[in-house]
Each structure stands twice: as structure tokens, then as C-alpha cells.
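tool_call predict_complex ligand=adenosine monophosphate
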Amino acid sequence: MSGPLLPGAAIGVLGGGQLGRMLTLAARRMGYRVHVFSPDTDSPAGRVANREWGAPYDDMEAVRQFARSVGAVTLEFENIPAETVEELSSVVPVRPGPRALRTTQNRLREKEFLKGAGFPVAPFRAVPDRSSLGAAVEEVGVPAVLKTAGFGYDGKGQTRISAPEDADAAWDALGGEAVLEAWVGFEMELSVVAARGTDGSFAHYGAVRNTHDRHILDLTVAPAGVPRGVEDEAVSIAAGIFEELGIEGTACVEFFLTGGGGLLVNEIAPRPHNSGHWTIEGAATSQFEQQLRAVCGLPLGGTHRAEPAAMANLLGDLWPAGEPDWPSALAVPNVSLHLYGKKEPRPGRKMGHVTARAPTPEEAARRALEARGALAGTREPTAES
Ligand code: AMP
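tool_result ok
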């Protein structure tokens, strides 16, 4: 790229979900135009973008036109076909770049990369077909978890194997190339969200603590409250991964913290992450603005956190009998509400989140949970809704 992409330029976003929406809002605030490309129309991101391209990722004619209409492309969804990324890359810079995407699109490739580069991961074995599962279970031991090698997120495409006899049923449940991973009796789940600029600069938000419910992120608390040495180690591993993969943009490294205080990398997300949503109100520069800055070749922003923050996800399950009680949630001090504009509140679907700030991480978590709890009382929808 000859120079940074400046306000007024158009950036392209692959994917139309909430991550793309929050990125689009950050970009438009800074005077950029945003084109969203996804197979959907009227998507959460497309609704706030300047232009929405509703076409399949393998519609190469649309992909080429989209590429010509923007100055750089980034993504909010990593499972973009390799040919699409190649086609785009022949016209405009695509960030985070092909190596990061190729590696993180497939769990097996990701784990082999991590292990090969010396980053700590739980023991695993490739399971290319059913016949190799028995030997893998013997080598890895039980309990273990069988995960599809290809596309999977939020615990989709994984089954626990508690005893060798479970193996066949687990294979039937997934079917297809997989990875068998030792079950980690972790003490805590952590993540590090960070960004790397086109000049190689690196800025991180420290380690945050994540709790999951049904394999879906439920609550993030920043800071994680782990010993300094653990946090430094997590950040240093994340920085090493960003460097090795040549990531340009915001990404997240998820970790298990084991009882012995050791860290294992669970997963890399090559885009803004749910555990970084708190940065919108809680940090000097949000993970989305950071993504924009990196994609445009601009200096990264400061990541200072003025006070602890916590984020609780709002899933579709909160809408069982009508509209959640928004006023009661917003009555909780220092709580911010984000809704993604999704029409259908299905169980397990991420509809929005609340972020709370407070003088201590415990109080921030308490406020976020109190606000979410307050939503459960139902109200009649208003005439406009
Ligand atoms: P993933 O989609 O691989 O990030 O998994 C989603 C969640 O499932 C993780 O955040 C953990 O809570 C749980 N999980 C996944 N793999 C393991 C494992 N090997 N041991 C224990 N829990 C796991």
C-alpha cells in the first residue's frame, strides 16, 4: 500500500454479523465508508453500512466488483473460501492476510502450527477417518473431546468422549475430518485480545477472564485478576502468535489456565472477539477501532483501561415471553446496552450484550449480571417495535 487509507476512503468487510456491525459503526464514526459483503441482506452489519453486497462468497464476479469498490478488505468471519481471499488479494490488501486465515480456518492446521512453533497446546491427534479414532483415543486418553477440523465456533462441532466406548457415537455425531484433544481440567479460561499494525506494532488489552455456558461465552471480566506472571506469559504468547502469523488487524488468543498455573492455547480468532466487546466503553481505543486502524495502515490507538469492566452476552433465550425489560437493566449504574438488530431471538443466538464498569472487577461483573438479570422481567413491546 502506498500510504495509509484516510477518512473518506471505503473499506470492505466480509461477513454481516455483529462483529462487522460494531466495526462498521467505529469506521463510520471516523469518517470512513463501509461496504459489507455477505450472503445475507439486511444483516446486522449491512444495516449500518454505506453499502451491503448480498452475494455468496463464491460469486467471483460480485467479489471482484466489491474489491474494486474499496481500498482494503477485512473480515469479521474467518471461514471465507480461500479462492475468494485470493481473488480479493489480487485487487486490494486483505487483512489479516492469507497465512492467518488459512491457519485459523482449520483446527488441525491451527494446532499443528501452534505445536510446531513451540506454543503450548493440550495433547491432540489428527483423526482423518473413523478407523484412526480408536488409536487416537488410546494415545490421548479419556476424557477427551472430538472436534471437527473444519468450520466450528461456540462449541459447535464438538463432542466429549468420556470412555473409549463413546468413540463411535462421537464420530457419528460429527462425521468428517476431526481432531481429538485431551480434556483440560482448567482452573479458568482467559483470552488476550490484541492488534498488530501494518508496521508490526502490537497493542494488547491484557488478559481477561471468560466463563462459558453451553460452550458459548457468557461473561468476560477485565482484568482477569490472575498473577502478573500469568498475564505477562499470556500476552507474550499472544504477541508471538501474531508475529508468526503476520496478523494485521485485531485478533484474539483463547487460553486454558491449568491448576498448576500453566497456560495452554485453545484457539485463535483472526478478528475482533466477543471477549473484547468491553473495550468499546472500557478502553481508550476499542478493539473495533483498532481493527480499522490496522486495516487502514494507521497507528494503533492506546489500550488503557480506566477502570475494570465486565460484559455479559444477551442470548435469544432472554426473549421467551416478549420484550426484555430494558429500562430496569439500564437503571443499573454504569451499564451500556448493545443490540445487534437481529430480528429473530432464537435460543443460543447472540442478540446483544451489556457492559458494566466499576471500581473493581467483581463489582463490574455483579453489575453486568444484575443488568442482565433485570431483563428477564417482561414488558409489552412498544408500538414502534
Ligand atoms: P472451542 O469452540 O474449541 O473454543 O470450545 C468452546 C468451549 O468448550 C471452550 O471455551 C471450553 O469451555 C470448552 N472446551 C473446548 N475444548 C476443551 C478441552 N480440550 N478441555 C476442556 N474444555 C474444552
